[in-house]
Amino acid sequence: MATEQHRYTEELKGRVFKIESLNTHNGPGYRTVIYMKGCTLNCLWCHNPEGISQKKEIWVLHSKCIGCLCCVSVCPHSALSFVQDKIEVDRDKCTGCYTCAGFCPTKAIEKLGEDFTVDEVFDKVLKDKVFMDTSGGGVTVTGGEPGMAPEFVSQLFRKCREEGIHTAFDTSGLISKKALDAIIPFTDLVFFDLKIMKEENAKKMTGKGTSQISESLNWIKSYKMEHDKPELQFRTPIIPGATDSKENLEAIEQLLRENYEGLFTDWELNLFNDICEDKYQRINREWIFREKEFGAGAYQEIEAFKNKNQKFNITISGFIQKS
Ligand code: SF4
Ligand code: SF4
Fold first, then answer.
1. Model confidence band, residue 3 (pLDDT cutoffs 50, 70, 90)
2. Which atom of ligand 2 is nearest to the CA of 60?
């Protein structure tokens, strides 16, 4: 049985598009943040659009490209072309074989998504352990939606537990009960996104309705009431015209007040910014918030909302004041 378990861990792979060391925004202390590829939602404002598709993809950093056309000539699927001095990717033809990335002399082609075993990711985590130990940090899995890779996350978190490493799970909640069952018992902190309460708005802005998200939240609530863990924190992205209406924020506040008081520690309001716009160009996806901005006036409204709801520990993050 022990041998089977060992083999399972070695063979199980998760698709990861980024691993960040010493991150300070996703839980206590210094964190190693694992970004899993693939998401169950498709939020129009996603700050990691390269994490939405579960497919392996590439993007080209045009500032690094010297126009040698090595990539065009080696692509076995004719997915690359040179148009108006730029490499273009035909995403229908690209299979994510990464041949082009291997031949690019300037590393202008970046791989989006690589498959790692649990042990491979855990080895990267261990390299940061000294910083975690001195700062009270740990590991955070996010994405994408890490709940799409439940066995991988579960195995990784079990290993973290064995080494005394704090674990945080960042989820949209649109995941199966089986995934919750696999992950939550090994999780110290859940970041649960509450984005849009109204069903038709949620479908329009995120691609999916809210019922399964509510079920997941109820599941976590029951688990927490029974086991007095994990710690629960909520996150709401404040997106102009999508999530920032008074009606939406008040509906979330009502849900938390009526059902979750005493069960969660923080509610983070993560303010809109457009620093991800470049990524949208690189991945050939439309950034529909070009004309939107979150100015000082909007910031003051959010601050007023926070002050009105002082019974909750509301934090505001992400604001970028433009000159
Ligand atoms: S990843 Fe493979 S299929 Fe896609 S563009 Fe590069 S070489 Fe072609
Ligand atoms: S191989 Fe790299 S540097 Fe050469 S054209 Fe392709 S992306 Fe540009």
1. very low
2. 7
100: Cβ below 6 Å to ligand 1? yes
Strand pairing category for 109-112 and 57-60 = antiparallel
Considering the domain 57-112, what is its CATH architecture? 2-Layer Sandwich (3.30)
Nearest atom, ligand 1, residue 111 CA: 1
Instruction: Return the domain boundaries, the chain.
Output: 2-53+114-317, 57-112
Enclosing H/E stretch for 254: helix 246-259
Instruction: Return the best residue to mutate from 70, 77, 89 for the ligand 1 pocket (most ligand atoms within 8 A of CB).
Output: 77
- pLDDT tier at 297 (50, 70, 90 boundaries)? confident
Q: What is the C-alpha end-to-end distance of the chain, expressed in Å?
A: 62
CA distances from 38 to 74, 106, 128, 149, 319 (A): 27, 28, 25, 9, 27
